[in-house]
Write a structure and sequence with these properties.
Na+/H+ antiporter like fold, elongated, 13 strands, 3 domains, 3-stranded antiparallel sheet, Rossmann fold, single chain
């Protein structure tokens, strides 16, 4: 039998498709990595891995850990110093790498530098691989912050700025690439590819640096800042596409119609797939993960997986991996389930760990002593500044900006920052840029990023706000009062079989009608709870939710020591609101007992407690009392969102409390605006943003709670929505004497909206 196996092994010895090599045992002495071996005297066989896997030596692992620790410590220290003087932290991280590299540490302490960063292959490969994963994370973060809707909304002006700036910078960089001495080329025979890399390095802008500068200067909410940011996003999008194509040509070491077609064809297919199919797949997958998984930070893991898969695909088809990560970020940014918390997680991982390693590693490759003739760095730097100044400035003027505004835009677009560093490192790793040219491009990235903040601040002196700024700020301020967004709304409904729980499910489902919204029906799996009861409750709630228009309704169990603890833990999973029916048995309490009180006290999202009034759904007339307090505006927001979804009529009521005042106070009051007019005007404006015609009333009296009840009777309202603050000092579910009075006497359905105590709305 062994002889037959040996003959079979010889036949399969060169079968590459199997991923392994099978050899007769007699050849064992020539191999080192044995997987399976039979006795030699039996003529047996052994299986050798096709790709040998050498073990990582202890010294190599130790050195890698030291390298990462030193790079991270020094990079973050320099980033902090740079931040203190008003610069971009990424520049400090790059400078840290230069200090630890051959330019400084290599000159001051050569033995230490050699011991920490030896030139042997394992150390270089390990640290380089880690740094490139950092680059993938950086481009994922950049893609997440790229707002395609913003680019479309700004339109004409940003398009002029970006197109003129990129075109002129690209042409000037191309000319430089064809005229620089051969000593700046890694391979003089690849002059065209070298020129294309220089052109891209001069064309690109650094959106993260630009965004940080605009934030520090208070320009992010102004139209001028939006133009700069949108134009920078356009620059980066075009730049990453060009970089990926040129990197693919650099790998092929030739330029022509065939290699260009071999790159453009797969690139177009990849982009088309991501646009028409990938975006929908990513959106649905994230929604599934957000609604169904139990593991912590599952969404962060999913986002990183998408980035790595896209990076692997673009690397496999000949484009660079960073382009795939950027496209992954664009797809993820379009999903409503990628919220601020998820973005913050990616930013924390990138800014706190992966990014500093990458930028410090990039600086580590710089040898300032290799710059040689100072004329070349000055020439390239001057060209970089001039191209953006002239191109973006001219584009801004043609786009309708004032000359001073156009100057500010041109200055803002000059920062290359981390994006220029990535372009330079890609060129160096592909053997296109020589160490001197790499140092030149790193110098350009440093100088432009350091010069942009003070120059931009100077250029904006005396620049007035544009006509649309105040209107946009007011619209954003009003829209910020909405407690929910239509797309991606994620609501938690507590299980229950009574009419109160059913009405709570109806209201929640009405607010979650979007395809990417979801309603999760939650049951606390605690001792004494019946799973069979929950199944029956879920069926009723799901039927109600489906009739109310919700497309995604899920069942979910959670376990803890108590019902309130389980619900509190679940509410921390990034829900927009928690809906609960009032307790069926509450004796002398208006809404519920100890369980609801504990839930309200511990929930990390707004809690909406609903009590049924017997009217059929959908409810047609809604009354919402309003004040100037944030919790009151939250209640009004819920009421208007429900009205928009159902077509209900909304009445917003402001009650001015009348009390005994002196004659002097009455005279002074005549010179003040009527109390409540500004509040009802804001609510009316918010309604207009939602396409609603809100009826507003201002009433006065010594007992506001009685006025609210009277008008509820007069308007025959079906639903009374009140924002309220939870009085946590009380030993019961209590919102103050007036709310308590209304809850006891209201004959219609009632929904009380309570902001979370942790980070919730402040009382007014």
């Amino acid at each position: 039998m062994y002889q037959r196996l040996g003959r079979l092994a010889e036949l399969l010895a060169f079968n590459r498709d199997l991923g392994l090599i099978i050899l007769p045992a007699r050849s064992y002495h020539q191999q080192e990595n044995l997987c399976i071996r039979a006795p030699e005297d039996a003529g047996g066989i052994k299986v050798i891995p096709r790709f040998p896997l050498p073990h990582l030596k202890d010294t190599e692992l130790l050195r890698l850990l030291l390298q990462l620790g030193v790079l991270l410590l020094v990079a973050r220290t320099f980033a902090d110093l740079m931040k203190r003087v008003g610069g971009a932290p990424v520049i400090g991280e790059l400078v840290a790498g230069i200090v630890l590299g051959p330019s400084v540490l290599g000159k001051l302490a050569p033995p230490l530098f050699t011991a920490l960063f030896p030139a042997d292959q394992p150390s270089v490969i390990l640290l380089g691989a880690f740094a490139w994963i950092g680059a993938v994370m950086l481009l994922l973060s950049v893609g997440l912050e790229t707002d395609l809707k913003l680019m479309r909304s700004i339109g004409r002006t940003a398009m002029f700025v970006s197109s003129f700036g990129v075109t002129l910078s690209f042409l000037l960089g191309l000319g430089l690439g064809f005229t620089l001495p051969d000593s700046y080329l890694a391979d003089p025979a690849q002059r065209t590819i070298f020129a294309l890399f220089v052109a891209i390095a001069l064309s690109i802008s650094a959106v993260p640096v630009i965004a940080r500068i605009l934030t520090d200067l208070g320009l992010m909410r102004r139209e001028l800042g939006t133009v700069i940011l949108a134009a920078g996003m356009m620059d980066d999008t075009v730049g990453w596409l060009l970089l990926s194509l040129v990197a693919g040509l650099a790998k092929r070491r030739r330029i022509g119609l065939v290699p260009i077609g071999e790159l453009v064809g797969p690139a177009v297919l990849f982009l088309a797939f991501c646009y028409f199919v990938g975006f929908r797949l990513v959106t649905r997958w994230l929604r599934w993960i957000d609604d169904r998984t139990y593991a912590e930070h599952a969404k962060l893991t999913a986002m990183i997986v998408v980035a790595l898969i896209c990076a692997a695909v673009t690397q496999a088809i000949g484009l660079h991996a960073v382009f795939g990560a950027f496209i992954a970020g664009l797809m993820l940014a379009g999903s409503a389930r990628v919220r601020k918390v998820a973005r913050d997680d990616v930013e924390a991982l990138t800014t706190g760990f992966m990014g500093p390693i990458f930028f410090a590693f990039s600086g580590l490759q710089v040898n300032l002593g290799a710059l040689g003739d100072p004329l070349i760095p000055v020439l390239v730097l001057a060209s970089a500044f001039a191209a953006k100044f002239v191109g973006c400035g001219l584009g801004g003027l043609l786009g309708g900006l004032h000359w001073r505004e156009a100057l500010a835009v041109a200055i803002g677009m000059n920062a290359r920052g981390g994006m220029g560093i990535i372009v330079a490192l890609v060129g160096l790793s592909l053997g296109v840029l020589s160490p001197p040219m790499y140092a030149v491009l790193i110098t350009v990235a440093l100088a432009t990023s350091l010069a942009t903040p003070p120059l931009l601040s100077w250029s904006l002196r005396g620049v007035r706000e544009r006509p649309g700024d105040l209107e946009r700020l007011e619209r954003q301020r009003i829209e910020a009062q909405l407690p929910l967004k239509g797309d991606g709304t994620k609501l938690l409904v507590l299980s229950g079989g009574g009419p109160n729980a059913i009405l709570a499910a109806h209201i929640a489902a009405t607010l979650a009608r979007h395809d990417d919204a979801s309603v999760t029906v939650f049951h606390a799996d605690v001792p004494g709870a019946s799973a069979a009861d929950f199944d029956a409750q879920f069926i009723r709630i799901k039927e109600t939710a489906a009739l109310s228009g919700a497309r995604n309704v899920h069942q979910r169990l959670g376990s803890a020591d108590s019902i309130s603890a389980a619900i509190a833990e679940e509410s921390g999973r990034d829900y927009d609101a928690v809906f609960a029916g009032a307790s069926q048995v509450h004796r002398n309490r208006a809404l519920g007992g100890d369980v609801l009180r504990e839930i309200v006290a511990a929930a990390r999202a707004p809690v909406v407690i609903v009590r049924d009034g017997g009217a059929p759904t959908p409810l047609r007339r809604v009354l919402v009392p309003i004040t100037g307090a944030p919790f009151s505006r939250m209640g009004a927001g819920f009421a208007m969102l429900y009205a928009r979804a159902t077509g209900a009529a909304v009445t917003a009521l402001y009650v001015r409390e009348r009390s005994f005042v002196s004659l002097a106070a009455l005279i002074a009051a005549r010179h003040r605006p009527v109390d409540g007019e500004q509040v009802v005007a804001e609510i009316k404006s918010l309604g207009q943003q939602l396409g609603l015609e809100i009826e507003t009333r201002i009433a006065s009296g010594s007992r506001p709670e009685n006025i609210i009840l009277r008008i509820a009777e007069e308007t025959e309202c079906d639903l009374l929505v009140m924002g309220a603050l939870f009085r946590s000092a009380e030993q019961r579910l209590y919102f103050g004497p007036r709310v308590e009075h209304i809850l006891r006497r209201a004959r219609c359905a009632v929904a009380v909206v309570i902001p979370p105590e942790r980070g919730g709305a402040a009382s007014g």
